[in-house]
Amino acid sequence: MQGFIRLRFRERGSASRAVQGAWFMVLFAALLLPGSVPAIAQEPVRTEPVVVTATRIEEKVSEQASSVSVVTREEIEQKGAGFVGDVLQGLPGVDVQRKGTAGNMENIKIRGGKSTQTLVMIDGFPVNSPGTSEFDIGSLTTDLFEQVEVVRGPQSALYGSYASGGVVNFIPRKGMAGTRYGAGLSGGSFGTVTGNGFASAGGNWGGFHLAGSGYRSDGTLPNDGTELVSFLGTGDLKVGDRQRVHLLLLSTDANKRIPIDFGSRRDSNHLETRRGFLLGARWEAKLSDALAVSASAGGYDEFLHVNDPPDPTDSFPFPFEDVTKSRKTVASVQGRYAPGTISTTIVGAEFEKDRITDTFNPPSSTYSRSLYLQEELRPYEGFGISAGGRLDRNSIGGTEFNPKLAAYKQFQAVPVKIRGAVGRGFRPPTASEKFDPFIGNPALSPEVSVSYEAGADLSISKGRGAVSATWFFSDHQGLIQFVDSVPGPFGFGEMRNVDAISRGVEMNGSWQLTERIGFAGAYTYTATWDKTNRQRILGIPNQRGSLSVLMTPSSRLQGRVDWRVESDELDAPPNGGDKRRPGYARVDLHGRYLWATGSREAPQVTLTGKVQNVLNRSYEERKEYPAPGINFLLGAELSI
Fold first, then answer.
1. 50 with 39: CB under 8 angstroms?
2. Could you give the 3-state DSSP secondary structure of residue 343?
3. Which of 3, 159, 160, 478 is 20 to 30 A from 169, comparing alpha carbons?
């Protein structure tokens, strides 16, 4: 614990003076200018986003007791985000780090936890890998999605073992009334070319949305090229007045050359091919005004081929080739009973099967059978309680019960909402973590996390500004992570259970200065301590912050300037050596111009442009993986 107490509210190490001096500015901005600001338009009143992930029912963000962030389609477009990892940048408590250039591996960590504790869903269907318990979002492009919902803190009471740190749900675009078509093309630095297209239709019968995208880039290093192709389709069919069938199909195909890996600081011939296929269906029926039921089933298949022949730069020159195939199958039923406005009861059952095979291990399967109960109480306007629990019986982790309790109170005299939550989460080790021949550990036991949070949300100047702040604390018992200080099967480390804690403060807010200019900012302080190894948890920076200036000079032109800063962290470099990754700061620019306007049926052309890392800083998001220098991307989008 002494090592944890030594963590101070300052940046550690010798990161650049610009980064060190910036924290006071970030903190001040986060207090006055928090959050994720909607795209600025002429009218100040906007519809409040609706979120479904936090409670499994549609509710406004203001009616949530949990700490929730929603990024809408409008905000995605104004950010100029090409990949979903870019969308999550700047959200409080959320840490997304890329291994080098776009298209490389990206995982999501929340509040000082590991990426294995973040449940990732596509339209409510889980996609975490049965082998690593993570999901690599590096191949998901933003043009496929309408909204991103992030729920921070343990959500195992609703979603089971993968959600002990939080949940991120990517909501696909759906068909709207009428018929729409569109296409986009852009190009820029490093031989980057992107393209996308969509077709959408809707009516009284339902709707569909079909979208495809492609991306290729040479990268910044030798053997750093990326090629991505993805397709996503959604469909909704109304059956009478009270039933609906929803279908989802997602296909991704990624070919990535790997310039840096274990044993080679500059690999010349390492290639990875990753393909994913998600198919899901959901049936919903409203049996009466008070009672509704639903049933869903889905499966996510992933194929990964790693081919790394020996080359002169290898420290251990031997051929390595591995083929991993995994399948996640989920089926669930749920009932919702709401006899009035005060109480909503949700009860459900879920079955999940994970199966994985690879070159070095025999096939293995794990099962999980679950029952959950959630009660949403709204005794009167402005006050709510969420209470629930889930019983999971896992073939590896045994039987676990995970409860959660949360509440909020909205005050009318002062436009402020206070909220608090406490919850428990767990995660059993995967078959790969236990039996991997290189770093596996058969003695691994399930990890358990108990977390607390308390926060407040304040509206300023009749909605022109908003401020949010949340304190959190998590106690991780038996956290599963790689430890390089022990020999392991091959002498360079293995997976171990460690006891750790993480605590901190996250703040965000916004201020609409005029109809033309707005500001947004976010700041997260996270103090972590691995009590077993007496060091910070790997891969978690102490401090992260962002400040954005959003401009709308005219109804056709939008622009923004984003400044992002991050302190140093301890990491696990693939080739050993110093674990400290220095902090950095980065500035990006983005603009959109609507060239042709008219009615909904008239063609519209949008010209887009962005410049990233404007100051051409040399930095790394993950140790040993250099991030790109200054780069640009120019494009055009046609919508009919």
1. no
2. strand
3. 478
H/E run at residue 637:
strand 631-639
Beta bridge partners of residue 337, listed in sequence order? 291, 345
Quick one: tokens of 447? 């990890």
**Nearest alpha-carbon partner for 38 in 75, 81, 68:** 75
- Residue 416 clears pLDDT 60, i.e. is over it: yes
Cβ(609)–Cβ(591) below 8 Å: yes
pLDDT digits (tens, 9 = 90+) for 19-34: 333 333 333 333 333 3
Identify which of 406, 402, 404, 451 has the alpha carbon closest to the alpha carbon of residue 427.
402
Residues 469 and 456: their CA atoms lie apart, in Å, by 6
Tokens 């609409």 sit on residue: 512
- Segment 510-537 shows an average pLDDT of 95
Cα 61 from Cα 75, distance rounded (Å): 16
Cα torsion 82, 86, 88, 92: sign: negative
User: What is the Cα–Cα distance from 110 to 95, expressed in whole angstroms?
Assistant: 6
Name which of 118, 156, 152 is nearest 137 in CA terms. 118
3-state secondary structure of 312: coil
| Mean pLDDT of the region 397-425 | 94
Hey, how many other C-beta atoms are within 10 angstroms of the C-beta on 194? 21
Q: Report the amino acid identity of residue 462.
A: K
Give 113's contacts (C-beta < 8 A, 6+ positions apart).
164, 165, 166, 449, 474, 476, 502
- Cα 570 from chain centroid? 21
Residue 59 reports pLDDT greater than 80: no
Element (DSSP H or E) covering residue 159:
helix 156-159
In single-letter form, the type of residue at position 367 comes to Y
Q: What is the pLDDT of residue 45?
A: 38
Q: CA 10, CA 183: separation in Å to the nearest integer?
A: 46
Q: Is 218 left (phi over 0), alpha (psi -120 to 50) or beta?
A: alpha
pLDDT for 232 equals 97
Q: How far apart are alpha carbons 629 and 622 in whole angstroms?
A: 15
Q: Could you give the CA distance from residue 533 to residue 3 in angstroms, rounded to a whole number? A: 10
Q: What is the total residue count of the chain?
A: 640
Whole-number pLDDT of residue 435: 87
Region of 595 (left: φ > 0; alpha: ψ -120 to 50; beta: rest) is alpha
Q: Is the pTM of this model over 0.85?
A: yes
Beta strand ranges found along 428-583 (DSSP E): 447-460, 465-483, 494-512, 517-530, 543-551, 557-566, 569-570, 580-581
